[in-house]
Amino acid sequence: MNARSRFMLAAPVLQRPVADDPAARPPRLSDADALGALLLDAYRGTPDDEGETLDDARRIVREIFAGAAGTVMWSVSEVTEREGRLVSATIVTLWQDLPLLAQMVTAPDWQRRGMARAGLLRTINRLAAGDETVVRLVVTQGNTRAEALYESLGFRPEAQPPFNSA
To answer: Domain locations in the chain?
Structure first.
């Protein structure tokens, strides 16, 4: 497996206009398996694909839900359903006393429709309503679509070395 460079980005938490989505709701513990399948599908063939199996992806979600990346902020996170399945998710945790975008994914057949942007904007608006001032995330270098989205929403590199994983 190749080493991957990951970078911490941060953005100010500012209220921005975004449409509500009646199919978006807070995640539930019972979403773990479906969210694992969504992660696997969304990351396949991208710079974030590390050859995980469905069981691996489901384990990752269960670990996040159990606090491996900080306490899940259930009330600001969201999942979106379409046609009876999860197609998008924005999961935020409280890590090192600041909100961290732990996972943001959209099913390949639902990408390029603004779901990730809208989900992240709704999440940021909920963070702003809760008096948070900054949100952070880790992005894999070379994930150009994610990098472009984050940059367009005001995310900038934090002054620290990249995170590398093997």
So the answer is: 4-14+26-158
Domain 4-14+26-158 grouped into CATH 2.60.40.3080: no
* Cβ-Cβ contacts under 8 Å for 65 (sequence gap 6 or more): 29, 32, 72
- In order along its 166 residues, the chain shows pLDDT tens digits of 345 788 999 999 999 999 999 999 999 999 999 999 999 999 998 888 999 999 999 999 999 999 999 999 999 999 999 999 999 999 999 999 999 999 999 999 999 999 999 999 999 999 999 999 999 999 998 889 999 999 999 999 986 544 444 4
Distance of CA 129 to the CA centre of its chain: 19
Six token digits for residue 67: 């606090």
Q: Which long-range contacts (CB under 8 A, 24 or more apart) does 154-162 make?
A: 154/11, 154/12, 154/14, 155/9, 155/10, 155/11, 156/9, 156/10, 156/11, 157/7, 157/8, 157/9, 158/7, 158/8, 158/9, 158/10, 160/8, 162/5, 162/6, 162/7
Helix, strand or coil, per DSSP, at residue 130: coil
Q: Where are the alpha helices (DSSP H) in 22-143?
A: 32-43, 54-65, 115-129
Integer Cα distance of 162 and 20 in angstroms = 35
C-alpha of 52 from chain center: 17
